[in-house]
Amino acid sequence: MVNSRTRSVSRLLLILLVGFLFCALQAGAQVIKVGSVAPEGSPWDKALKRIALDWQRISGGRVTMKIYGGGIAGDEPDMIRKMRINQIQAAAMTGSGLGKIDPDWLVYQLPFLTQNDEELDYLFEKLRPELEARLEAKGFTFLAIIKSGWLRFFAKEEVITPADFQKLKFFVMEGSPEIDQAWKSMGFHIVPLPPNDAFAALQSGMVEVFSASPLTAAAMQWFALAPHMTDINWSPLTAGLIISNQSWRRIPANLRPKLIEATQRALADLEAEIMAVEDQAMEIMKENGLVVHEVPPAAQKQWEELVETGFDILIGDVISRDLYEEARQIVAEYRQR
């Protein structure tokens, strides 16, 4: 009888102890709130959720993520501000968003600096340590970067040369006055607008041309109102995942390399998925009236010469000249291999 009672009491104490330890572990878990403008169910959203599951598994529940997708946490400037005051701890950011933290990150997106994925990958590899250090000095740790396609021009009529383009009203995303000035210096008639206003502006004729990746043009249905695509790799789209230094340093040091590895693996898979989906988007757009216009070498040269006038505005005032020259040297080095 005594033994039975003793066993029951011991079992009860064990259950209570396990419950106490579980609650203590849960209470001590670090929750990383991640902001993203990617819509629910999009490839980016799914990748972030995969990262969240990996971080929870690797850390044994000590580090968990909560994803605030679809712009719930605001646009990119909002997310940067919220990370600074610890309302959120991490964010998926475009290259333009990273440029709002440190403008030198915009070097990756300069038109024609790189002209294909291989050149861009090489530039990533060589510049990344320097740019990561600049970001860390501003309060953020960089976890991973990916390519998200290349910007092309989509217009209501055929556009081959810069002169064709300069006749049209060009939609640009508002909020970057220095870049706006660079567009103007190249002779473009820009119309800065929020992205959500672009479709209505195309319908009304307020804008007649825009730059976007084929995937974006298809997903937003913008191509239906501007069915002429200029087949030129104007500028690469880049994106990455960052976390505040404060939150990153709270994570045990032995876990950090494993979490970075999982993040980079998930985003590498995302990059491959984006490329595959973009190819499908191109085929769908062509089936629905998209006309693709090749750009002959003489016109390509005109575009390359034109962007140099825009660089006069950006280089030195927005992007540091030393970094720009270093980037040019790196790309030249790759082309000579």
Query: Biggest β-sheet, characterized?
Result: 9 strands, mixed
Mean pLDDT: 90
- Silhouette: globular
Low-confidence stretches: 16-27
- Per CATH, the class reads Alpha Beta
What does it look like?
This protein has a single domain (28-335), classed as 3-Layer(aba) Sandwich (D-Maltodextrin-Binding Protein, domain 2), CATH 3.40.190.170. Helix 2 (43-59) packs antiparallel against helix 11 (256-287), helix 5 (117-137) packs antiparallel against helix 13 and helix 7 crosses helix 12 (297-314). The chain is an alpha/beta fold. It is globular. Mean pLDDT is 90; it is low at 16-27. The longest helix is centred in the C-terminal third of the chain and has 32 residues, at 256-287. The chain has 13 helices and nine strands.
Short account of what is shown:
The chain has helices at residues 2-28, 43-59, 76-84, 95-101, 117-137, 162-166, 177-185, 198-204, 214-219, 245-250, 256-287, 297-314, 321-335, and strands spanning 30-35, 63-68, 90-94, 140-155, 169-173, 189-193, 209-212, 228-244, 291-294. It is α/β, with parallel strands linked by helices and 337 residues long. The chain has a single domain (28-335), classed as Bacterial extracellular solute-binding protein, family 7 (D-Maltodextrin-Binding Protein, domain 2, 3-Layer(aba) Sandwich), CATH 3.40.190.170.
